[in-house]
Amino acid sequence: MAELATISRPYANAVFGLAKSEGTLAQWSGVLAVLDTTAQQDSVKDLLSSPDLAASDKAAKLAEICAEEITDQGNAFLQSLAEHDRLELIGDVRGQFEALRAEEERSIEVEVISAYELSSSQSESLRAALHAKFNKEITIEATVDASLVGGAIIRAGDIVIDGSVKGRLAKLVETLVQA
Fold it and tell me: Judging by beta carbons within 10 Å of its beta carbon (0-12, 13-18, 19+), is residue 28 exposed, middle or buried?
């Protein structure tokens, strides 16, 4: 949703600026991951959407749940979101922060979903090809989905390459239906 991205951007930029200036990009990445993952739990979602609690109380409870894994600055970040009733933006802020971090570190995480497990030589070959295309360090997160029948789906940022048999068959069916 474009509106959420627009509202989240100043928070992500502020956290990124702070983390970059202090050399704590990895630490902030961890803090935001813990907050986002925790906020996605059903019981925590219920807590955060409760009309019975003030936003500052919701932030305090979330900070309490994550106390062992977040810093004082992470707590201050939560309170800042709460002041403007923006706790629902944690996931969007995290996503934008990670994009800024990847750009800063000249790296990109690529998701590869293949019908069969990639061999190390296939993985290295793919990494080299993607490095040449994006001119960034490539981290591959590979998963297996047998329903693809053959081939793979590659997601790199906002680029999706569907080279799966399942995807090709779906395109063929779409083409035949339109004809």
Answer: buried
